[in-house]
């Protein structure tokens, strides 16, 4: 039987944007940026308690992780209480709260770290997808192994709880690591990854395009109805990359 190679996900502290870009960013390797958002106001604004107090009446839809067609539509307050308490093996997971004008107040002082500059922010066009989400889940909720949308890269900042990440590279090497509150995980373009919530979690995540992955994203987009976006990104590459 083939033995599986498992390594610890690399982790760094206090890595500034330039050194990040010239290492993990350009090489396209996943990494945990320990404590990167520890002091952000978001850590307080998006805690279970603050969300319940400030946005408890907002309506949300959550789906089970395995039996995905089983959905509930609850208030955020009711969902937060459920997420903190349930021990179900296949719990409801809230993964679809995108940052739109209608939900912007939920995102508090959300900001994109300078490590992950997002060229999509330059477009004021309703056809350009919004790729910023708030994700909330109980213990046992999970995202199965997947590749990210449109071949983008992503960052994921954890507000509360513990997530276990698994990445797999093209050679079949597996990387695993635990993300704790204040940590940011970088997922580069083209890396299969899955996430398991070891306790109730709240995180923010954003998929992005910039000079580190614009080739992959435009190649992907030219085969979709978003061809016009590929052309616009090509133009940005000629100016900024
Ligand atoms: O936190 C999660 O469950 C999912 C994060 C992730 O992999 C994604 O958004 O692509």
Automatic annotation (TrEMBL):
GO terms for molecular function: 2-oxoglutarate-dependent dioxygenase activity; sequence-specific DNA binding. InterPro entries: JmjC_dom (IPR003347), JMJD6_ArgDemeth/LysHydrox (IPR050910). It comes from the Bacteria. SMART domains: JmjC (SM00558). It holds the Pfam family JmjC. Residues 101-225 form the JmjC domain. GO terms for cellular component: cytoplasm. GO terms for biological process: positive regulation of translational termination. This is JmjC domain-containing protein. It comes from Deinococcus soli (ex Cha et al. 2016).
């Amino acid at each position: 039987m083939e033995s599986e190679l498992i390594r610890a996900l690399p982790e760094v502290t206090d890595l500034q944007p330039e050194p990040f870009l010239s290492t993990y960013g350009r090489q396209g390797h996943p990494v945990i940026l320990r404590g990167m958002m520890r002091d952000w106001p978001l850590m307080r604004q998006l805690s279970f308690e603050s969300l319940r107090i400030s946005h408890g009446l907002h309506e949300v839809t959550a789906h089970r992780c395995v039996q995905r067609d089983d959905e509930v539509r609850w208030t955020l307050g009711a969902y937060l209480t459920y997420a903190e308490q349930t021990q179900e093996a296949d719990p409801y997971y809230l993964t679809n709260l995108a940052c739109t004008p209608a939900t912007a107040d939920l995102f508090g002082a959300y900001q994109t770290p300078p490590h992950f500059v997002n060229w999509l922010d330059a477009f004021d066009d309703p056809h350009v997808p919004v790729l910023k989400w708030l994700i909330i889940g109980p213990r046992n909720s999970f995202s199965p192994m997947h590749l990210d949308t449109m071949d983008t890269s992503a960052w994921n900042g954890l507000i509360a709880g513990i997530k276990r990440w698994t990445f797999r590279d093209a050679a079949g090497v597996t990387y695993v690591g635990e993300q704790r509150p204040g940590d940011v995980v970088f997922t580069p373009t083209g890396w299969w990854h899955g996430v398991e919530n070891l306790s109730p979690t709240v995180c923010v995540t954003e998929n992005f395009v910039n000079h580190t992955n614009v080739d992959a994203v435009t190649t992907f987009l030219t085969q979709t109805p978003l061809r016009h976006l590929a052309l616009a990104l090509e133009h940005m590459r000629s100016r900024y990359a």
